[in-house]
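Human: Respectfully, please carefully check these tokens:
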Amino acid sequence: MKETLPSRSPGETDGPPTRPRGEETRAAPAGGETRSAKPRDALFDNAKYLAIVLVAVGHAWEPLRGESRAVTALYTLVYAFHMPAFIIISGYFSRGFDWSPGKIKRLITGVAVPYIVFEVAYTFFTRWSDGKPDRSISLLDPLYLTWFLAALFIWRLTTPIWRTLRWPLPVALVIAALATLTPSIGKDLDLHRTLQFLPYFVLGLSLKKKHFELVRRREVRLLAVPVFAGALIVAYWAVTRMNYAWFFHKSSAEDLAAPAWYGPVMTLAIFGCSTVLVAAFVALVPRRRTWFTALGAGTLYGYLLHGFFIQAANHWHWSRNDWFHTPLGTVTVTAIAAVVVTGLCTAPVRRIFRAVFEPKMDWAFRRQTPAQGREQARTPEETPVPAPAPHGSR
């Protein structure tokens, strides 16, 4: 199935769809002849789609956690790896980002502008859904799902710095660990999440294609199944013994009523756990093109739009119906969430909202000279992947 509508996922938000090095569309030579672009890598589009489904399902499970230990265990497992997976892949496809005018323009139009639009939209919507008509608009305090765009803007903007450092990942881990010791960071731009999720983005920047090929080996794929099975057992055991809010990366150790030294220890432990689960997830993702491969290019749409459905459903208190807390009810909720977010990734929805998610805004920027355009073409930015979201409710 060939997707004809250009679109982006949460990590593909800094401009028109581009492709990894060696897969970009070639500029037309003087004679007007064009070279065809190589197809997108189905592995990453498949991974993005499956991850965005898990995002929506995780949000749908939130009201059911208190009634079921099994649901809480599944919820914990999903939050242990789905957001790190998005961020790692986003980092991997951000390796070509620099501070050139063209890429700064795409960063603004693809990340900053959607952030402002949806921050305002969610503020007005939650005035109704949360019953808070006096909620004010604050671009410094990301609301619900918009935190990811704020974080992605900062990560992307600092990419050249991480690409320059000799040991970027250890530095990022130290920063994340220090963030868990600093409750005074506050809510501005959700810096706790930005800093604590930073190592995953930096890890993605450090990866090469051969690393993804490594986890696609048959023996790794066979090992991935018992890894997830074991992780689910551990998650079930940990429900009554551990605060799963550590996986949200949005609080300090003090905020979680834990000793300060827990913060750095949990930073390293969770990073190791999440990285293993991401590797197992990638190992199990289909490499071939499937019916949902094209949907992977629209995960930003599914990510930002599904929040309105979640908020509206919570406004009508669907979870107060006891049937939804039965096994069949939980399965039904899961299926509905998966179907809704799938529909929001489709071409018709993306066509309707494209002006919001992918504004051109040529009027707002200086026109590049031919020399700048050629330089931009020589250093194409790789297509990053989203959305998605750790615990977004507030």
